[in-house]
Every structure is written in structure tokens, then in C-alpha cells.
Amino acid sequence: MIKLRLSLIGLLLIAAAFSGAPLYAQTPPPLAAAPASVIGYASIIEQTVRSRKPSQSLTQLALNDVVVFDEQITTGSESRAVITFRDGGVLELGPNGVATIDRFVFDPQSGQREKAISIQRGLFRMTSGAPVANSSITLRTPIATIGIRGSVVSGIVPSDPLQPTVIVGGTGQFEVTTGGGTVGFGGGQSTVISSAQSAPLPPTQVPAFVAATVVQAVTGTLGNAPPPPQPPTGNTASVIAQANAQPASQQRAVQAQPTQSSQPTPPPQAGGGVGVPPAVQTAAIAGLLTGQPLTQQQQQLAVQLGQSVPNAQQVVTTFAAAQASANQQSIQAAQQQVVSGLSQVLTPQQLQAVQQQIQAVVPTTPATSGQPANAAPAQQTPAQQPATPENRTNDLQPPADLPRVFTASPT
Question: Which domains, from first to last, does the chain contain?
């Protein structure tokens, strides 16, 4: 349960008293227009990660680098990137991934957020961030649009357009739309999108082994649960705070231009690529993921594929519970990070208004995970494990005899 008995402002005052540093800006400092394009920063970088800012060439992205609107992030065949947004939400992108920040407006003073991210390819996981009264969060893939509400979402967007896209809800509510229709689902449920014109597969028709193998790919690459937001340091912290103080109207004005997501997606490194797990691809080729009644032969194949993950439903249930627990912690951390940063650029009165805006929509009951109709009872939530190279091998990892989802390029 998220209940802050002592206000964040009170906590900040105590910290300031011990440090001897002034907590509030007595008058708001002048803000340049540039921060309105800032959306966040690189909080975790593993191996080589590159980015392309608007009208610039591809450069290497380093830890604590500022990320701006319309910036395209590209990971290498053995790389991973975590982008922490100004609202405290995070986007994790696995190997050979490409993502573009299409839109990001966050104004905690007026309680507004608009976030749109394109995942051109890659294995990903995303958390929403600090709660605000008016929030719109959208993920776009080459074949679908996903609307997100207060949640953690994961999935695989393959580099091969003939492979299906699979989206798994960790916690929250989701709507997936294609040219063929819209499907809604909740935490612990998933959908499969075969093409831009076919309807997403309803969660009750997604075989348990499909969701489980994708969950294993996500946790085997990114860890059991999303990492908590890592505070920015140095000048980046100042830039983030100033950007969060910009009014929504100014942020929208800066971002009123075409996005790079319409540009060609950079090809993966030689020998690399992103694909769904072999069992999912086999199921797709055999016609098990169309939503149509299965023939006897297809039913037999489904049973055979399901044997690759005999505890499939438990894998998904445990995953959803871990995401729900991590999301509660993330909300608290994101709220504290936003308020702490704004304390350096707002007056006490302005900061108090921000806190009231956020507190008005903070969940006061534990986040719940929706589950498939045949879900097993939820088990004890595993301890949150921010992803590191050491802990990425965990109880949700794929069996040793299953191929890796990602093909690394030769060294």
C-alpha cells in the first residue's frame, strides 16, 4: 500500500536542515526554452548504445546523457539501455532494439502528461512514472498502437515482419489497436498481433506457453522486475528539473513537428536481430494464433509446444506479481524524484501545489494484476531485482535447452 505519512516536502525540509543547504528557490529562476525538448536521460547503459538526435548524426549514448524529443535510441547485439523519463518512468530496451521518443509532455504543476514512444524493434519493458491527473501514454509498433494506463508493460517487437508481435501486461490496463480492431486486457494477460490488418488476439485465446516464453525472454534479458528510477546527476539533474518546470503549452510548441519514427529503422548489426521465441514462431506458422478454432492436428501441436514450459501459467502469474510490486515502489520513487528536483527551481507555494496534484492521484491500495481465466492463484511476490548482468539469470529464465531470442553478431 502506498501511503506517505510524512509529506515529501516535510522529508525534503528535514534533509535540508541536516545539510545546511537551502531547499527552495526563493524566486523561480529564468528558464530557457531548450529544456522543453528534454524528455529524460540515460540511467543504465550496457555495451554500445547509439542515439540520433533531430538533424544530427548517430552518436554514442553515455550514462547520464540527456535524451530529447524525437531522439532515436539504438542498442547493439549485446547491449541494453534504460531511459528514465522526467516523470520517473523508465523504458528498458534489450539487444538490437530501436526506439524513438515521438512525444513527451510532462507538467506536474498542471497535472498533465502525454507520452508516445515508437518501438521499431526490440525486447522492451516500460513503467508509467509519477501519477498525474491527466495522463495519456501510447506505445507504437510497426503494426499496432498500445494505449497504457497506470502500468508496467513488456513485449517483443521482432525485426522480421513475418513474425508476430507479443505484448504482455505486467500490471495495469491496456488497449491494443490495429487496422483489424481493438483488444483490451490487464496485468497478467497478453495479446499477439500477427499483422497491421489482423485483429489482436484476445487474451483468453493466447496459449499459456506463448506468454510464458515471452516472459522468460524478458526476464532473462532485463531481469525479474523494472529497475527503480535512478536519479540524474550533475548538470543533467538541473536540466531535468528545469524541464519539469516548463508549462505544458511550451513543451507542446517545441514538439509540434514530424517525428523520426517515420524514417527507416536502422538495420541490426551483422548477424543480429530480434525474434520471438521459437515456440511462438512455430505456433504462428502453424496457424495457432489466428483466433480460429483449431484442427485436431493443431491441438496436438499446441499440447506439444506447451510441454516446453510445463509451468507456463505459474511463470506468467509470478511475473505479473513481481511487476505489480515493482510498480508500487516505482510510483513512490518517481514521485520523490520529481518533487525533489522541482524543489530546486520552484517556490514553496508552487512546490506545495505540485505535491497536492500528485498526491490526489497516488494509489492508496495495492496495484492488482488481472489474470487469464485459467490463472493459478498468485504466489508470493519475489523480491524486486533491478536488472544487472549478475542477476539477469533468475528463476524465470528460459530452460537451458531453449535457444536465445537474440542472435549475437560474431566478435
Answer: 35-256+307-359 (2.60.120.1440)
